[in-house]
Amino acid sequence: MSTPIVPQKISPTMTPSLNPMFRFQWEKAQDCFVLLFPEGMVKLNGGAGEIMQLIDGKQNVQKITDTLNNKFPDAGDLAPDVHEFINTAIEKKWLYHD
Amino acid sequence: MTNQAANDRQKQETSAMVGPPLWLLAELTYDCPLHCPYCSNPTQLSETKNELTTEQWFQVFNQARDLGAVQLGFSGGEPLLRKDLEALVKYSRDLGFYTNLITSGIGLTEKRIGKLKEAGLDHIQISFQGADPELNDAIAGRGNAYQQKFDMAKSVKAQGYPMVLNFVLSKQNLEQITDIMRLSCELEADYVELATAQYYGWAYENRDHLLPSREQLVEAERLVNEFREQQQGKGPHFIFVTPDYFETRPKACMNGWGSTFLTVTPDGSALPCHSAKMLPLTFPNVKDKSIGDIWQQDFSFDYFRGDDWMPQPCKGCDEKEKDFGGCRCQAFMMTGDMHKTDPVCSKSEDHHLIQAAIDSAIEPSTPILKRVNQKAMQHAKNTQLSIARTKV
Ligand code: SF4
Ligand code: SF4
After folding, report:
1. Listing from the earlier edge strand, what are the strands of the sheet with B191-196?
2. Mutation test of the interface with chain B: which of A37, A42, A90, choosing the one with the most B Cβ atoms within 10 A?
3. In angstroms, what is the span from residue B383 Cα to ligand 2's centroid?
4. Furthest-apart CA pair in chain A: how many Å?
5. Of A45, A69, B22, B347, which is most buried with the most CB atoms under 10 A?
6. Which chain B residues are closer than 8 Å to A38 by Cβ?
7. How far does A30 lie from chain B, in Å, by closest CA?
């Protein structure tokens, strides 16, 4: 069994939620999901957009990972990607966690 | 190929290259209750009766959003003086804009903050002139302004908005910088812009009274860094912007002229930046042309795109992609020629004008001017700074 290398701060039972300071939406003109905040915008890449869509303050990291693994069965285990993104997003204060 | 065909082709190529006007600044009215001497708005002001109607603004928002605009700032003057502000917020928010209110805080009430929230307003930015009532109200030219701003900032946070505080720094208030940062913490601001005035409009007339000395700035920057260290990642994010007069390279013009930023003035003029009206160019009006035509095809918006317009030393300079030759308005104000290299650049033959300005600010020879006619003074906006935060 191979254990994926994941950042230690993120645990599967943690439930992330969007910092209310940010707004998450699809931008047609940019052809991607974005985070909007006072006078600014961050464009998210495809993977980040997929993860962010599932963040609703109710689903925990495990649930989010399962959903994505089902949605992209050929992509291999997505846990490391999910953990890495959520870790970065918390550092950048886009996300809060319980 | 005929000339016409060549022109058409060139037009198409231009519009294909031009990205969307991501940032739309809607200057709703020139009317303002304050009288700041650093006001960066044009010194000749229009009458309020020529202001765009609610319907006309709706159309502007629709067209800009279709092009891909995403950030919308409501400013003025004082945008709260527009009775249809809530309607404008609601309409644009429903279109998917991130809506920013840029206000002096005068005319705001707890109730109105609530009504704007209901309409979908995303964020409120309040400008301050100083860290205590005496200095703030002396600069703003109005008693009680400080207390009003203070109370409203509290209420903005209490009602759950992200909040940006904007302190316009000048030699009149730079010594208060530590108090300003403490006040920002007390008010629980999310971002704080500590920005020296841009010297356009009224601020240019009053430059000798506003421009700090290099020593003052160095000291202020040291205090900001010291304060940041004590914060340990908590509290407001402080953004300190020094005037470009003390640099040897100019600031980039808004990400490039006509690249990101579109201002629509109260009477419907469309500008690549809020100061551009001073330039000897004819700018289009949203009453006559769609935002798409303006952005993609208008002569004035295209005029300083790319580097064809550049004279030397900019044209042959390997830094032109970084700063686009600097600010057109500054070049025009200081040299009388809007094409020239921004005098802030040490490669400019006009660079001595900057040193002269710094020297002359050490001992001002004329009294400070305050705009009182038409009660139309505008609070400062630091759009250049704001755009720096738009990561695109
Ligand atoms: S840098 Fe100067 S020319 Fe460019 S947008 Fe700002 S004021 Fe206008
Ligand atoms: S010469 Fe022009 S392009 Fe080069 S650094 Fe100076 S302003 Fe910028």
Report:
1. B237-241, B191-196, B163-169, B123-128, B98-103, B71-75, B23-27, B261-264, B270-271
2. A37
3. 22
4. 47
5. B22
6. 100, 122-123, 125, 162, 164, 190-191, 389
7. 8
For residues A52 and A55, what is the distance between their CA atoms, to the nearest angstrom? 5
- The β-bridge partners of A97 are A16
Which three-class secondary structure string do you get for chain A? Answer: CCCCCCCCCCCCCCCEEECCCCEEEEECCCCEEEEEECCEEEECCHHHHHHHHCCCCCCCHHHHHHHHHHHCHHHCCCHHHHHHHHHHHHHCCCEEEC
Q: pTM, whole model, 2 decimals?
A: 0.83
Mark which residues 141-170 of B lie under 8 Å from A by CB. Answer: 160, 162, 164
B327: its two tokens? 């600010």
DSSP SS3 for A40: strand
Q: What is the pLDDT along chain A (98 residues), one digit of tens a residue?
A: 444 444 457 888 899 999 988 999 999 999 999 999 988 899 999 989 999 999 998 999 999 999 998 998 888 888 888 999 999 998 888 998 87
